[in-house]
Amino acid sequence: MACNCGGTAAQWPPQPVVVYELTLPDGTVRRYVTHQEADAANKRAGSTGVITAVTR
User: Residue limits of the DUF7196 domain (predicted)?
Assistant: First the structure.
């Protein structure tokens, strides 16, 4: 029997990564790891931006 010895097997295909893009009315685009971070940044900017989930 083969021994895994605590190593991890590579995942295939790679799992997609989701980031949240905040697009502000002036054209600025910022990326955040969580929706909560994007929402907080949007509120600081006056709640005028659009948050979009982007898969990479």
Answer: 1-56
Neighbours of 38 (CB within 10 A): 22
Total number of residues shown for the chain: 56
Q: Are 38 and 32 in contact (CB under 8 A)?
A: yes
Residue closest to 32 by CA, chosen among 12, 51, 8: 51
- Residue-level pLDDT at 20: 98
CB burial string 11-36: b at 16+ within 10 A, e below: eeeeeeeeebebeeeeeeebebeeee
How would residue 18 be classed by pLDDT, with cut points 50, 70 and 90? very high
